[in-house]
Amino acid sequence: METTLHRDLYLEPLWFDRERRNIFHREWTCVARTEELPEPGSFRSLTLAGQHLLLVRGDDRTIRAFYNVCRHRGCQLIDSEDETQNAGRFRKQIRCPYHSWTYQLDGELKHAPHVDVDRSQYSLHPIDVDEWGGFLFVRLDKGDTSLLDTLGPIPARVARYPLHDLVCGWRHIYTVNANWKVILENYNECYHCGGVHPELCNLVPAFRANGGQGLIWEEGIAQRGGTNTFTMSGTTSRPPFPGLSDAERERHFGELVYPNLMLSLSMDHAAIFIVWPQGPEKTLIDCRLLFHPDALAADDFDPSDAGDFWHIVNKQDWTICERVQRGMHARLCTATVADGRPQASTCASMLPRLKPIPCKNNNPSSRGAQRPSSRGAQRRGDLAQHTAKPDLVTLTLPCDHSCHECIIQRTPLADVPVLIKSIAGRLRSSKRTLSMRALFPILVIALLPGCAASPASPHTLQQVLDQHAAAHGGRTAIEGVERLQIDHRH
Fold first, then answer.
1. Which residues are within 8 A (CB) of 259 and not within 5 positions of it... i.e. 6 or more apart?
2. Within a 10 A sphere around the Cβ of 470, how many other Cβ atoms?
3. Where do the DSSP E strands lie in 303-432?
4. In sequence order, what are the residues at sequence separation of 6 or more whose Cβ sits closer than 8 angstroms to the Cβ of residue 228?
5. Which one of 10, 59, 145, 321 has the largest count of C-beta atoms within 10 Å of its C-beta?
6. 128-161 pLDDT, tens per residue?
7. Would the pTM of this model clear 0.85, i.e. be above it?
């Protein structure tokens, strides 16, 4: 059994922003199929991790990717807010609607009206793009790792499936109110199948037996006798893909292509899922069923036998994922292990109130012992008590919903405002204000002159605290496993 990530990584905008930068900007990410760009001039407009992109097939039939922005004044070439412009065909060139700068299909600037510029210096900003199995992948940040190196052994394992030639015959886009990692984790285990997927387990009893454990996906998963595909009956009139092995004609195979492509392979169709994270608690899933062109050309082609089956299974998955996401908001929810049983965590098991501990030379009566009558007066009083002149202020920060022990130590200074905004938003939504008081002295300490002025300045808030405490005779220490205690001399 493996421990899940801390629940903040499924809830917090701060962590989602980091994932966008460190995963979906840096890694090869699946965004489309080559069949969506069938001829020169075909384009797709899409948004990946907050960045608006264009896929264009050039006159040389090469597919290229660019940022969807003109080099002149930054106007979007295709309106990302207009769904009717998500796909189409440029005739011969790409024209900016603002000042009519025009670009060739390969991104080179062709014409800038009434402006004398070196056109070779103002091509559209390119993005790395590559193709495997008919899937288009882009990478926003430059890197040395090729797509094939990233895919590892997956292409060899599915080499006999004609993925490149397959064509979409059924499609449904789902909006799921769950973090994208919840969806991938759900796809990657069958422990839930027995209770969640009765129709699926009817076709594949191995998904129910022994809690779905011991499955060897490299060898394929055997189906019930007399069935060989994922339809309501387990059979179909469509022939198997040409060139499959005996096992691939009878068993089900699957792959998870990190970070956002899920493949489920039957002998006559491939169910693919392109995962589009929209926020920490919202994900779009583009589900398509791919068929052989010969099957689509048949007079009696009807994808509904597979489409109806997958729609049932998909809704069961998305519903349970949304329930998991909602459950993560529970105060008692911290980390869990893979089988779902609670695990002793280093995080607090409930939402404690954060309050200052009176310092030894401070008169309690001067610290606002009476509850203020207004929220504003309470905050002003709290901030004043930390900017007064006691010899020593001791502040205890329990783990709280934001798990300060986990987050504060690892928060880059540049992310502190985002962290504060995130926590403040959650406190407003839950009508709680006490936790916000603990953040004022943290910011005061972090922003004190000299804390981060040297070339070897620390990069995280905890390092700032440690450095300042060492320089000023205070100390910073983790107290037990549920609270962070900061002692600071003014």
1. 23, 24, 27, 29, 184, 275
2. 11
3. 356-357, 393-398
4. 234, 235, 240, 249, 250, 266, 267
5. 321
6. 999 999 999 999 999 999 999 999 999 999 999 9
7. no
